[in-house]
Amino acid sequence: MDVFETVRTILAVRAFQEKPIPEDVIHRIVESAWLTGSSRNGQPWHFIVVQDRDMLKQLGLLARTGPYIAQAPLAVVVAMEQSPYAVSDASRAIQSMILTAWAEGVGSNWVGYQNLEQVKPLLGIPDEVEVLAILPFGYPVKKLGKGRKNRKPLSQVAHRERFGQPFA
User: How high is the mean pLDDT of the chain?
Assistant: First the structure.
């Protein structure tokens, strides 16, 4: 799938098949985050790959907005070191993983946003490293209507030259 088609069709997935994700796909997902650009090449991120069923269940219990993590065959916990650009850089890496997974037929969704302190002791994350998000990954349970998105008209959010001058 080309990049624009991936962006155009991606949807959040919150229900996953029990089907495992092949190791080469997992590697591409994580490597896409590692390859993502960062401000001043600071790379303030850490990616904890979790496949253990018991650990996934515990993550699902700890992340109040993502109990469905427990059913995913894979989750990546994204943590970041202190940096003025950490949230931006780690967010870019998260988007790279989600897009790479979708291009492979694997769904995902962003769970949490800097409210995951309770995950740190579970995964041995040092105090000075902050958990930004948990990304569950898996093959969608049901066929999704790729590309059917509820978006404001482009003319309301994109402007040409000056705010208020529609782009479209």
Answer: 95
Contact 138, 106 (CB under 8 A): yes
- Non-local (6+) Cβ contacts of 39 within 8 A are 83, 85, 88, 89
- Write the CB contacts of 120 (distance below 8 Å, at least 6 apart in sequence): 126, 127, 129, 131
What average pLDDT does the segment 25-51 reach? 98
**What are 85-135's pLDDT values in tens digits?**
999 999 999 999 999 999 999 999 999 997 899 999 999 999 999 999 999
Q: For residue 66, give both structure tokens.
A: 């993502």
Three-state secondary structure of the chain: CCHHHHHHHCCCCCCECCCCCCHHHHHHHHHHHHHCCCHHHCCCEEEEEECCHHHHHHHHHHCCCCHHHHHCCEEEEEEECCCCCHHHHHHHHHHHHHHHHHHCCCEECCECCCCCCCHHHHHCCCCCCEEEEEEEEECECCCCCCCCCCCCCHHHHCECCCCCCECC
- What proportion of the chain, given as a percentage, has pLDDT over 70? 97
